[in-house]
Amino acid sequence: MNERLIQWTLLREWDYLQECLRLPLLHRYGENIATEHGILDFAVLAKNGDLVVVELETGISSHAKFLHVEEQLTRYKRITFQGKQTQLALLFAEDDTPERLRDKIHFICEKLSIKECTYKLTEVHDRYQRLVTQLAKNIGIPLGPTTAMDVCYLRWMNTLIKPFADQHVNELPISFSFFFEPSGRGLFRRRTTYGVRKRLCEDFELLLERGNKLVLTEYGQRFAEAMLPDILVGFSKTHPLSAEQKRILLEVLTNGVMRPCKANIYYFLRFIYLTEGAWVPKSTAPEPKPEQQDFSYWELATALLGKRYSWRTLTDFLSFTCNQCEELDLVERVKLSGAYDHVVLTLLGSRIIGLFELDLHLKRERIHIPLQVM
Questions:
Q1: Which option is the CATH number for 154-237: 2.60.40, 1.25.40, 1.20.1260, 1.10.10?
Q2: For residue 13, what are the contacts with CB-CB under 8 A and spacing of at least 6?
Q3: Per-residue model confidence as pLDDT tens digits over 297-309
Q4: Which secondary-structure segment (H or E) carries 128?
């Protein structure tokens, strides 16, 4: 388990965190707090009014790691919060730290007047597993199912919307030659290609099927009008998304109506937040074994998505959804030489997650508040 997953687990297992810190706690104060001396992992408010700043570590298993922790603690000891009595605590995995280093840790904690605390990595892992199995229920409001489709990019919607823009109309018959014809003379040679693009447009509320016609919605009309002119596209078969088209898709994404293709993006962003973007497998990545750390990421993705996709389907799902998030400037993907790439949330992506969480909270409260009347 990496440090972010351990922190995520401890802050949800409040009783165990109090047991580890040996303090009665009131509530969480903050996470990943930026200061002039470094970024603090998290801080909690104790019942006695003290602010406990926690430096969280996994196992301190080498002398180099110990020196790194010592340097961090020395810096963090200078941090103060106005109006708060601040106490610094070191919280590390006791079952992944050798005894020879435990004495050194104890010495440096006494020297700097730092509270020395430990947790058991095996215990946190067990609690993490229980949380993962209940994660979908704990969201509070079901977002609806995700969908795994062979859609690499959002710009592919332009292939279906372009005939409307070219004809300057808001509806066209499905049999129109630009779409699908059984003879194969239409724009889409195969029904599945046409079907997945239509599904993507429907989930983003750009068009709907009415009888034997495809009809643009208000979003769809704006999307068609915002399409880049052919002269700016050149020989590309698919028009890239214009800046205005991206704005429209973000407006649809955050309008509170959840569809499967939009749920894909939310769950992907949430997954990147929980894993710090450290685990986005490439299509060539080998399937992990149960004893490998990568397998726990696979389990987390399965719990979040609410479906047990096969390994190949999951890698395609994560890769394709990552492409879509990149198109909307929600993430940045760092391509690495190994089996996995690194993905970083942009400021816009972080704000999208915050908005999704707020919307879910409001929906949950609208359901729960009336139920408080007995």
A1: 1.10.10
A2: 124, 127, 131
A3: 888 888 777 778 8
A4: helix 121-133
